[in-house]
Amino acid sequence: MSSTQTRQLNRLSNRSILWWRIAQVGVWLVGLTILFFLFYDPEIGIHLFWNILIPVAPALIVVAIGLWRNVCPMATNSLFFRHLGLSKKKKLTMRQSSILNLVAIIALFVVVPLRHGIFDMNGPATGILLLLLAFAAIFMGLTYEWKSGWCSGLCPVHPVEKLYGLNSNLYLPNAHCDSCSRCMVLCPDATPKVNPLSLKKNNFHKLSGFLMVGAFPGFIWGWFQVPDATGIQDFPHLLSLYELPFVGMAVTSLLYFILRRFFNEKLLTAIFSASAVSCYYWYRIPALFGFGMYPGDGMLVDLTSSIPAWSTDLAVALTTLFFFYRIVFRKQTGARWAKRPPYADKLQAA
Q1: What is the number of structural domains in the chain?
Q2: pLDDT(116) > 90
Q3: For the segment 191-243, what is each residue's pLDDT rounded down to a tens digit?
Q4: What 8-state DSSP symbol labels residue 184?
Q5: Which residues does 132 contact at the CB level (< 8 Å), separation at least 6?
Q6: Nearest partner of 89 among 220, 222, 182, judged by Cα
C-alpha cells in the first residue's frame, strides 16, 4: 500500500490528536476538580456535579453524542492504559457484551433512586460512588479491547446514550480508538442509526432494549415524584425511593407494549426517546431555579423572587418542542456518532 493510501487511512492528523488529547485532559481535570470539592467542600461539589454537569449531560448527548464520547472523563480513565499499550485487549463475546449492557441498565435503575436518600445531599458519598465507577472503568479498560468493556459495555450512561443519541448529525472523528480491532459485533460509535433495539440476538439484548425504550421514560417521571431526604431512615423508607420510579416504569412499559402494535419500531423508539429526555427537563429546569415540586430539592439558585413562574413553564415547553423536533420530526440523517478509525489489519498490511 502506498504512503498516500496509508495517510488516507489515518483520519486524524497528529495535530488533531493533540487537540483532542488537550480537550480530554481538560474535561478530566474538570472531573477531578468536582471530585475534590465533593470531599472537601460538599456543597459546592454537589452543585457542580448534580446541579450543573448532570443537567447538561442529556442535552449534550442528544445534540453532540460524538463529542461526549470523545471527552467523557470516565472514558479517559478507561482507555488511558490502552493508549499506553498496557491493556490485555480481550474481546468480549456477543453474550458477554449483552450481559454487561443489561448489568449497566440494572445499575442505573438501582443507583439513581438512591440520589434521594444519599447522593443528592452527601458529597463524600457521591465522591466514593464516582471513584468506584472510575476504578471499574480502569479495570475494564485494562482487561478488554478499546471501548468494549466500559464505554460500550458496563458504563451505566451508555444505555442512555443509545436512547438519546438516535438522530445525531455531528459527525466527529473517534478520538480514542486509533484503529478498529472489531472488538464489538455492533460498534455504537460507527454503526448508523444505533439505538437500544438495534441488536436482538439474544434475550439479554431484547430485555435491555425494552427496559430503555419502554420503561425508562416512566422511571424518569417517577423519580421526580420522590422528595429528597437526609439519609435513609429505615427499610420502608428505602423501598419508598423505588416505589414511584418502578410504578412509572410499569405504566410506560405497558403503554409501549400496546403501542408497538400500531407504530413501527423506529418511530416508537424515537417518540419514547424524546418523551424521556423532555420529561427530565420538564421537572429539572424548574427545580434548578427554585420552582420544583419540592422547593429546595435539586436547586442551583433560587430565582423565585426574581423571575415569574411562567418563565420556567416557557422554558420546559420550548425544550420539549426542541427534543421532539430533534429526535422525532427532523429527517433522519443516518449519521454515525463518530467516524470509524482505520481497521487494524489494514494498517498492518500498509
Answers
A1: 1
A2: yes
A3: 888 899 988 889 999 999 999 999 999 999 999 999 999 889 899 999 999 99
A4: S
A5: none
A6: 182
Q: Residue 230 corresponds to which cell in the numbers above? A: 437526609
The grid cell for 329 is: 420530526
Amino acid at position 347, single letter:
L
Q: How confident is the model at residue 172 (pLDDT cuts 50, 70, 90)?
A: confident
CA distances from residue 223 to 20, 129, 207, 216, 233 in whole angstroms, order as listed: 36, 19, 21, 10, 18
The answer to whether 176 and 147 have CB atoms below 8 angstroms apart is yes
Distance CA 190, CA 198 (A): 13
With contact defined as beta carbons under 8 Å apart, do 89 and 144 qualify?
Answer: yes
Is the pLDDT confidence value at 129 over 90?
yes
Report the chain's mean pLDDT, rounded to a whole number: 92
For cell 442509526, name the residue. Answer: 193
Find the mean pLDDT for residues 185-190: 87
Q: Tell me how far apart the alpha carbons of residues 51 and 44 are, in angstroms, rounded to a whole number.
A: 10
Please tell me the distance from the alpha carbon of residue 104 to that of residue 156, in angstroms, as a whole number: 4
Integer CA distances (angstroms), 195 to 160, 164, 200, 268, 312, in order: 10, 8, 11, 12, 31
Q: Name the residue range of residue 249's domain.
A: 3-349
CB 297 within 8 A of CB 251: no
More confident site: 230 or 160: 160
Q: pLDDT tens for residues 315-325?
A: 999 999 999 99
* DSSP state for residue 230 in the 8-state scheme: S
Grid cell at residue 46: 454537589
Burial class (CB in 10 A: 0-12, 13-18, 19+), 176: buried
